[in-house]
Amino acid sequence: MAILVLLMPFTLMAQSDWTVSDAKQKDSNPIAYSDKSVKAGKVVYLGNCKSCHGDVGKDNGLPLMPKPTDFANQAFLDANTDGSIFHKITDGRATMPAYGAILSEQQRGDVTNYIRSFDPNYKPQASAQAAATPKSNDTEVGAPYFLDVKVDEANSEVTAILMGTFNGEKAPVVDAELFIGIKRYFNNLPIMEAGDVTNEEGVIKANYPADLPSGEEGKGELLVYVVDQEKFGELNQSAELKLQATHPSHFNETRALWADRGNFPIWLMVTYLSIVLIVWGVMAKVVMNLIKIKKIGN
Ligand code: HEC
User: Fold this and answer.
1) Tens digits of per-residue pLDDT, 222-262?
2) Residues contacting ligand 1 via CB (< 6 Å)
3) Which overall architecture, per CATH, does domain 14-129 show?
């Protein structure tokens, strides 16, 4: 009994509301809110968080003390800013792991946006980065917007250009964040510098690793999109990239990047099919023998 009383304060402490410092609450999510980010965040959530927090909205998290929050809980969503969610994920507390060293800033920002997507009252805050960079000609250049992509194979360089409209003429959009990457199974491989924004000419340049192994044909798909979809709408472009052709026998590399059915190594398929055939053969033999035994018995 005495022990119980002694332990009480600890249990109470552990259950107390989790609040982060004012500064952290005021922080914004470094990753801007967008459908793409929410989708990426869902992948992070399913892989890292669902095991404890359960399916969002089903209140079926692990029965731990304190309980892993169900993120569809409106009281939680109302009480937490983007900054406090982001920092709680980064810092952890008790059973809740500190993800600062486990997940990249991008992944933590994405999963924060995924959690936010369950909040019907949520109005995206400007991302830290958008707030930090002054948008000089924001008011001038408007829709329609145009996204263009050029590939310079000789220098393995990609140029993405974002233009808007000013007085009926095309004009560059300055300080816009673009994603430039190579399509990959599950998550795309970014090749731009994280947080790069368009310059005075509306341009971001990025170099791609032309020696990236990518299947027998050595072809990859370049993917460029505007990150801030709220403002620019869904703008994206793709182009074919010449990459390193890989013989299928180097199937480890091939599968790492381009894991799809087309690249399923033939030798593996043959091995698999032979095993299936042998197993079926053995079973057929057993059945035939059983029938024989029955006949003999008669
Ligand atoms: C090992 C189990 C476990 C895993 C895995 C886990 N969490 Fe948690 N999480 C918890 C527990 C337990 C709490 C409550 C901690 C507390 O209040 O002290 C919590 C709390 C939180 C909170 C704060 C909730 C609140 O009410 O203030 C957030 C945000 C959060 N987790 C996000 C995540 C995200 C995102 C992931 C995946 C990247 C994740 N958690 C993975 C167990 C886990």
Assistant:
1) 999 998 888 888 899 988 888 888 766 555 554 454 456 66
2) 18, 48-49, 51-53, 64, 66, 68-69, 76, 85, 88-89, 93-97, 99, 111
3) Orthogonal Bundle (1.10)
Whether residue 98 contacts residue 90, with contact meaning beta carbons closer than 8 Å, is answered with yes
Q: How far is the CA of 116 from the centre of ligand 1 (A)?
A: 15
Asked whether the predicted pLDDT for residue 71 surpasses 90, the reply is yes
* Global confidence as pTM: 0.50
Region 142-257: CATH code: 2.60.40
Please, which pLDDT band fits residue 284 given cuts at 50, 70 and 90?
very high
Three-state SS for the chain is CHHHHHHHHHHHHHHCCCCCCHHHHHCCCCCCCCHHHHHHHHHHHHHHCHHHHCCCCCCCCCCCCCCCCCCCCHHHHHHCCHHHHHHHHHHCECCECCHHHCCCHHHHHHHHHHHHCCCCCCCCCCCHHHHHCCCCCCCCCEEEEEEEEEEECCCCEEEEEEEEEECCEEEECCCCEEEEEECCCCCCEECCCCCCECCCCCEEEEECCCCCECCCCCEEEEEEEECCHHHHCCCEEEEEEECECCCCCCHHHHHHHCCCHHHCCHHHHHHHHHHHHHHHHHHHHHHHHHHHHHHHHC
Which of 180 and 216 is assigned the larger pLDDT?
180
Tokens of 218: 């050595």
Rounded distance from Cα 298 to ligand 1 centre (Å): 68
User: What digits encode the pLDDT tens for the residues 124-157?
Assistant: 765 544 444 444 444 578 888 999 999 999 999 9
Distance 69 CA to ligand 1 centre (A): 7
